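User: Before I run my own analysis I want an independent prediction to cross-check against. Here's the chain; please return only the C-alpha cells and, at the end, one sentence I can use as a sanity check.
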Amino acid sequence: MGDAELAALQAEVEALRVELAAQQRTVPALPSEHDGTPITWRPWTSAPLLSHVDAACPQCAHPGPSLLTFGLAGEKQKIRFQANRCPACQETRVYRREPAAYGLPRVILHEIAYHPPRSEVPGGR
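Assistant: C-alpha cells:
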C-alpha cells in the first residue's frame, strides 16, 4: 500500500469518525423544577402499546414504542408531570398533568418543554 492510498484511507476514517460523532444522540435533560416546584423523575420505561394509538414517532417514523417517565412533585410526591421520548431521534416532550374538572376522570396534558430530534429526519419530515 502506497503513501497516497494510506492517506486516502486515513482521510476516509476521519470523515467516518466525524459523521459518527454528529450522529451521537444524547438524552435531553428533563426539568428539575417547574414554576418553583421541584420535580423528581422516575426512570424511563417503554410506553404501553395501545391498539387504537399509532406508536410510531411522527418525526422519524420509528415504529415505537416510545419511552415514558413520570415526574413526582408536591408534599405527597404525586405524579404531576410526564415526559415522552423517541428512542431513535430523542425528540422529547414534557407535560404538566392536570386532572380534568368536569366529565369522566382523565388527565389534561399541558406541554411545558420540547426538545427537537437529535438526528437527521429521513425525507425531511
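Sanity check: The mean pLDDT is 88.
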